[in-house]
Design brief:
304 residues; alpha/beta; 8-stranded mixed beta sheet; 14 helices; globular; binds nicotinamide-adenine-dinucleotide
Length: 304
């Protein structure tokens, strides 16, 4: 199957979908994209061009992205179809049934779900050997990782081709060998968030302190020193001694924190409502978003 100039179809032109389309278009592929909201299709070129200018690329790559309101027409010629619609299992299952009917028999079908096991999304397909997960991170054109998740049915050929496609497009794909909820990245991320929330819930420190502790200590090292590299660096014996003292005390309830549930019940939804764990003025929100973007742009530039 074509790889140098593959035909890519993206389902969903939202936050993730337009960024994924951008990465493939910049890598020289022709990209079709669909959405049920016409306004999202209408401004997709504008959004991609603005992102490209922001990171110093020729905005004309956006012209390789072809919007269409018709799902079947979007996927019909594609070598690779990636779905990035809302995180809704019944919706994703329904869409993949439609995609399978319209796509070529050899096309690879991928979901960008954040945490839903790929097995649950793809179980109803006739040919499950070509179905897999590709989990990108936001913004897709700045964060390098793509987790490539196979199910018990996925062929190794489909996994290898998908990894090669993403690598050639400048991404850093990794292979997740078992299809577990949250894959690798979100399991790690939310293990940390669970303890972060518990520290506030139990009055050990406030929310601002949790974030300061992380950002001013191990957060500084995390981009260049993963936890298992770090465990080897300090010694597995020291790691074991620390775990013998601390693990029993770390939050391990199976469900979400009641503190988090109460915030949501009170309508304290974070940026959306101006208050979550902390209060957020419009200026503070813009400043934090800007800081994250600058940081990611700098990291990308130093990768290059
Ligand atoms: N936002 C993130 O940080 C992030 C990161 C990784 C993965 N994801 C996952 O990516 C997926 C998309 O997330 P997002 O943040 O881009 O959401 P989003 O709401 O920005 O975009 C979803 C898009 O899908 C469209 N859509 C809904 N139903 C559709 C249909 N039937 N056909 C075509 N388009 C349809 C919506 O109109 C919308 O434009 C979700 O599964 C999410 O969990 C999100």
């Amino acid at each position: 199957m074509r790889m140098a100039k593959a035909r890519i179809a993206v389902i969903g032109a939202g936050l993730m979908g337009h960024g994924i389309a951008q990465v493939f278009a910049l890598a020289g592929h022709e990209v079709t994209i669909t959405d049920t909201v016409m306004a999202s299709l209408g401004n997709v070129h504008e959004r991609i061009a603005a992102n490209l200018r922001e990171i110093g690329y020729d905005a004309r790559a956006a012209e390789r992205v072809h919007p269409s309101p018709d799902l079947a027409a979007t996927v019909r010629e594609a070598d690779f179809v990636v779905e990035a619609v809302s995180e809704d299992l019944p919706l994703k299952r329904k869409l993949f049934a439609e995609i399978e009917r319209a796509a070529r028999p050899g096309a690879i079908l991928a979901s960008n779900t954040s945490v839903i096991p790929i097995t649950r999304i793809m179980a109803g397909l006739r040919d499950r050997s070509r179905a897999l997960g590709t989990h990108w991170w936001n913004p897709p054109y700045l964060v390098p990782l793509v987790e490539v998740i196979g199910t018990q049915w996925t062929s190794s050929k489909a996994i290898d081709w998908t990894i090669a496609l993403h690598k050639a497009a400048g991404k850093m794909p990794v292979h997740v060998k078992k299809d577990v909820p949250g894959f690798v990245g979100n399991r790690l991320q939310h293990a940390l968030w669970r303890e972060a929330i518990a520290l506030v819930e139990h009055g050990i420190c406030d929310a601002e302190t949790v974030d300061t502790v992380i950002k001013a200590s191990f957060g500084r090292r995390l981009a260049v020193l993963g936890p298992l590299e770090n465990a080897d660096l300090v010694g597995t014996d020291l790691t074991l001694a620390i775990h013998q003292t601390v693990l029993a005390d770390i939050e391990h309830r199976p469900g979400p924190s009641p503190y988090l549930e109460a915030l949501v019940a009170k309508g304290k939804l974070g940026f959306k409502s101006g208050e979550g764990f902390r209060t957020w003025s419009a200026d503070a929100q813009a400043a934090l978003r800007g800081k994250v973007l600058q940081h990611l742009k700098k990291a990308r530039a130093s990768d290059a």
